């Protein structure tokens, strides 16, 4: 299979590219700063896509950092513009790809408390919900052509490194980890291993529409912090009040750390996907202690 991946240098994109190549697929990576084995966005032409079997669109500005007006503009515009470019190249190809895997995020649902959210749940409110709706809508021309389009809505992706888990693990190792806010907000999570596996499952199976990329076993943030402390053999009882998080990190801190997302991956489970890291403690031990 020939697979084109945008956002190929990111956490998910680079891991996905390696796994596809490991099994014998050809990967065409698209990057704004392409290396020798990648192409630029200008090189992603309809003619190129005539030779591509599937496209995975993961491109977008990182949501980390204080959400100034300009930062929020980049978060939205980078996603919508990239998806529009991908969609235009696909619909103008003479022999278009058979499948588009179009990224989105759990933020689509907004802060929903303890409500269990499968793929039938409607959109929520707030900045991330608005971004995700516009992001997904930008791929509509591909769907209108009848090309199978799967839309993975990613929860918190756990990986060892500089991402979300890496920052939480650092504070926990320094013995300043613990509940964020009241700790009762639900955190939906998925390991990088299962994230890559789920995308490959979407490429290989006849699945379309929204797909929650999240373990079937989300945890409250307090349980997450306690379990992380147990795995790292550190105390995890230093609470960070919600008002302090909001004051220090602004809207970004509230949306990413204090809002509640309790996802259920109904579509993946119904289509036979088997999670390798379904329980939090086991996932954290495999990621951080091996």
Per CATH, the superfamily is NAD(P)-binding Rossmann-like Domain
Largest sheet: 8 strands, parallel
How much strand? 15-25%
- Structural class of the helices, strands and pairings? alpha/beta
CATH topology: Rossmann fold
Shape: globular
Number of helices: 11
Mean pLDDT: 95
How far the N terminus sits from the C terminus, by CA atoms, comes to: 32 Å
**DSSP strand count:** 14
How many domain units?
Answer: 1
- Which regions contain 5 or more consecutive residues with pLDDT less than 50? none
The helicity comes to 40-55%
Helix and strand run: EHEEHEHEEEHHEEHEEHEEHHEHH
Please tell me how large the radius of gyration is. 19 Å
CATH architectural designation:
3-Layer(aba) Sandwich
CATH class: Alpha Beta
Report on the structure:
This protein is an alpha/beta fold. It has one domain (2-158, 187-216, 261-276): NAD(P)-binding Rossmann-like Domain (Rossmann fold, 3-Layer(aba) Sandwich), CATH 3.40.50. The protein is 42% helix and 17% strand. It is built from eleven helices and 14 strands. The chain has helices spanning 11-22, 46-49, 69-91, 127-137, 140-144, 164-173, 192-204, 221-232, 242-258, 266-270, 280-288, and strands spanning 2-6, 26-30, 38-39, 54-57, 99-102, 104-105, 116-117, 148-154, 156-158, 186-187, 189-191, 209-213, 219-220, 262-263. Strands 1, 2, 3, 4, 5, 6, 8 and 12 form an eight-stranded parallel beta sheet that branches. A two-stranded parallel ribbon has the order 7-14. Strand 4, helix 3 and strand 5 (99-102) form a beta-alpha-beta unit. Helix 1 packs across helix 7 and helix 8 (221-232) crosses helix 11 (280-288). The longest helix has 23 residues, at 69-91. It is globular. The model has no long low-confidence stretch (mean pLDDT 95).
């Amino acid at each position: 299979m020939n697979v084109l991946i945008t956002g190929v240098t990111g956490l998910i994109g680079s891991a996905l590219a390696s796994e596809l190549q490991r099994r014998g697929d050809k990967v065409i990576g698209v990057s704004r700063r392409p290396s020798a084995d990648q192409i630029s966005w200008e090189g992603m032409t309809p003619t190129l896509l005539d030779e591509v079997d599937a496209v995975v669109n993961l491109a977008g500005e990182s949501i980390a950092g204080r959400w100034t007006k300009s930062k929020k503009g980049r978060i939205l515009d980078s996603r919508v513009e990239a998806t529009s470019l991908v969609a235009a190249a696909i619909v103008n190809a003479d022999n278009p790809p058979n499948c588009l895997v179009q990224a989105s995020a759990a933020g689509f649902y907004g802060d929903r408390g303890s409500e269990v959210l499968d793929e039938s749940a409607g959109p929520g409110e707030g900045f991330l919900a608005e971004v995700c709706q516009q992001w997904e809508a930008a791929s509509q021309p591909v769907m209108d052509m009848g090309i199978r389009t799967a839309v993975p809505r990613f929860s918190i992706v756990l990986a060892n490194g500089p991402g979300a888990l890496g920052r939480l693990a650092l504070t926990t190792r320094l013995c300043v980890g613990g509940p964020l806010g009241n700790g009762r907000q639900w955190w939906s999570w998925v390991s990088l291993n299962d994230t890559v596996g789920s995308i490959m499952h979407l490429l290989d199976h006849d699945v379309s529409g929204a797909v929650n990329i999240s373990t079937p076993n989300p945890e409250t943030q307090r349980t997450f912090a306690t379990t992380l402390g147990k795995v790292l053999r550190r105390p995890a009882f230093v609470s960070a009040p919600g008002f302090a998080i909001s004051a220090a990190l602004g809207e970004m801190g509230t949306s990413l750390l204090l809002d509640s997302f309790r996802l259920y991956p109904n579509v993946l489970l119904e289509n036979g996907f088997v999670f390798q890291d379904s329980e939090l403690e086991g996932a954290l031990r495999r990621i951080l202690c091996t």
